[in-house]
Amino acid sequence: MTTTDSRPPARPGRFRDELIQPFLVLTAVVGTAVQWPGAPIAYRPLALPLFVLVSIAALASLLPWTRLTPGAQIAAMSAYLLLGALLMPLAHQTIGVLFPYVAAVAAGLKLASRKAAAAIAITGALVAAFATWAVGQFSPALPQWPVWLALTVAMPVAIGISHHDRLDAVRSADLAAEEARRARASEAREAALEERGRIAREIHDVLGHSLSGIALQLDMADALRDSGRDDEATAAIRRARAIAVDSISETRRAVHALREDTLPLPETLRRLAEHAGVGFAIIGEAGPVGAEATHTMVRVSQEALTNAAKYAPGAARDLRLAFTADQVRLTVHNGPATGPRHTGPAESSGVGLVGMRERAALLGGTLQAGPADGGGWTVELELPR
Length: 385
Hints:
Elements: H1 12-17, H2 20-35, H3 44-60, H4 70-90, H5 98-110, H6 114-138, H7 147-150, H8 157-226, H9 230-260, H10 265-276, E1 279-283, H11 291-311, E2 317-323, E3 327-334, H12 352-362, E4 366-371, E5 377-384
Parallel strand pairs: 1-2
Antiparallel strand pairs: 2-3, 3-5, 4-5
Helix pairs in contact: 2-3, 2-5, 3-4, 4-5, 4-6, 5-6, 5-8, 8-9, 10-11, 11-12
InterPro entries: HATPase_C_sf (IPR036890), HATPase_dom (IPR003594), Sensor_HK_TwoCompSys (IPR050482), Sig_transdc_His_kin_sub3_dim/P (IPR011712)
Enzyme class: transferase
Keywords: ATP-binding, Kinase, Membrane, Nucleotide-binding, Phosphoprotein, Transferase, Transmembrane, Transmembrane helix, Two-component regulatory system
């Protein structure tokens, strides 16, 4: 049988509730002390020490009991209620009759064991009933409470137990809310770390491919200049610069997309298609797609549309996004070229479909690119949902 009085405050409303017990205790102590000189008290030499002791016990019950052992708490509460029960018939015409009732409430409120609280309350009621009967027998001229009324001393323990349970429930709810808040904070920290990892990998891919392209163009420019082909060397240097500019832009876009990633994949691709002036269609019932898969599909769409514009100018282009139960498939198709091919610097992201194929493999998917039936080119990316 364990008891405790170390429960922390659960809510501001608990402070208001706990004012009731101090008010009742102070009312009983002060009211009885004021009434004592003129009230008909039975056996004053016995009643006065009982009143002093029960007042001390009542005031002590208002203090925290965190340093008391469970056995000491039960003993202290038993003494409080039994002293009040003995005083009840001796000072029944004073407000001191409140002591056993307030003690019963305190037993239910402060003791964690319901059995201990109920046992103390029942014992107090029996003691009050026996003391009432005994005073009535030895002092028949003194008005006295009925014996059955003394038995009601045990009833307020139910109020204390109910209040105890309510406070425990409120405290448990507060603890659960605090645990939920900590869990959300932990999930947010984990998401932030995961996002940083994605940003680092994406920037690594962008810079790795773009720096390789820049180095290749500069080596070519150096070789062309040594051969006296200055115009071609200058063009290679310009291509290297274009790759560097595109790399910076793509890095910024990757960081922004990974940090802001607020739009679902269908809406993101719809806006991309509208911006590029190409067709867009969704097949199947759209559903949630992970952040990594979403970003990869957006990047593949951008790369494929850029390549189509460069290598098949004037060709019709379209995006299709198909959802199945366990995967999502992106198809970017362009028809045959209808205009002259661009000969200027590359305008792609600098990563290329080779890098996207590697990213798809890391996500457990596949990327295929090749000629389409009837002419044109098709890029198809499949990723698990």
